[in-house]
Design goal:
- This protein has a 4-stranded parallel sheet, sandwiched between helices.
- Helix content is 42%, strand content 11%.
- It has 225 residues and is an alpha/beta fold.
- The protein contains 7 helices and 4 strands.
- It starts with 5 loop residues before the first helix and ends with a helix.
């Protein structure tokens, strides 16, 4: 939820009004059974901004939150100042195909899924079919990419064969997917900048070895005129 970004927020509050939104279905937000498509989630953002009387915003989003940012900046360009993608600027339609071949993917389906599991499944399904487009984005954008060096689910207790398959998947499937998305962002986002990070993970903004530099880069980008 929004609390993941507390430390980052504290580095910005001297110059910005910082608000965080936990999307529907997560944390303490309402948990309706439906409404997890990107346009609806984006309207949740718009209504949140209207309720707080914010007419122009910088948006920072992590992971699948990039879809809502892309959609918002495309539909409401006049309200979007700058965008910061935290390992979030990806076309997840391709990911749905690639990661279905992940040798460590847990394919076990719950026999009686909880509301949380149903929401998660609905949300991921919507993310996996949404076609992103950078064409209408006019705002300057900074996109961080944390390149996966090893499979995030790899465990020391796994046998050598499983480890080898997982590492091959990471190097031959997951990494090339990331680099294709980096190249696309650089090619299609007119005012885009890319920062590629190594030796960290998807939550690099919590990584003690990375976070100070990342926060400084975000701050400098947002303050730049």
């Amino acid at each position: 939820g929004a609390r993941y970004f507390d430390e980052m927020a504290r580095t910005l509050t001297d110059r910005f009004r910082v608000l965080a939104l936990t999307r529907r279905g997560y944390g303490k937000s309402d948990k309706p059974e439906a409404g997890y498509d990107v346009p609806t989630l984006t309207e949740d953002v718009r209504q949140f901004l209207d309720a707080t009387k914010l007419t122009h915003v910088n948006l920072i989003g992590h992971s699948a939150g990039g879809h809502e940012m892309i959609h918002f900046a495309s539909v409401y360009p006049e309200r979007t100042r700058k965008l910061v993608f935290l390992d979030a600027a990806y076309d997840r339609r391709e990911a749905a195909v690639i990661f279905d071949a992940d040798p460590l993917l847990d394919r076990t389906l719950p026999t009686a899924p909880t509301l949380r599991q149903r929401i998660e499944a609905e949300f991921l399904c919507e993310m996996d079919v949404y076609e992103i487009s950078y064409e209408k984005i006019k705002a300057p954008a900074l996109s961080f990419y944390a390149i996966g060096e090893q499979h995030p689910s790899l465990k020391s207790t796994m046998d050598d064969s499983t480890k080898a398959k997982a590492q091959a998947f990471t190097l031959l499937s997951a990494q090339p997917y990331q680099f294709r998305n980096i190249e696309r962002f650089q090619r299609e986002v007119k005012n885009g900048e890319v920062v590629v990070l190594r030796g960290t993970n998807h939550y690099f903004f919590e990584d003690p070895k990375q976070k100070d530099a990342v926060f400084a880069q975000i701050r400098a980008f947002l303050l730049r005129r």
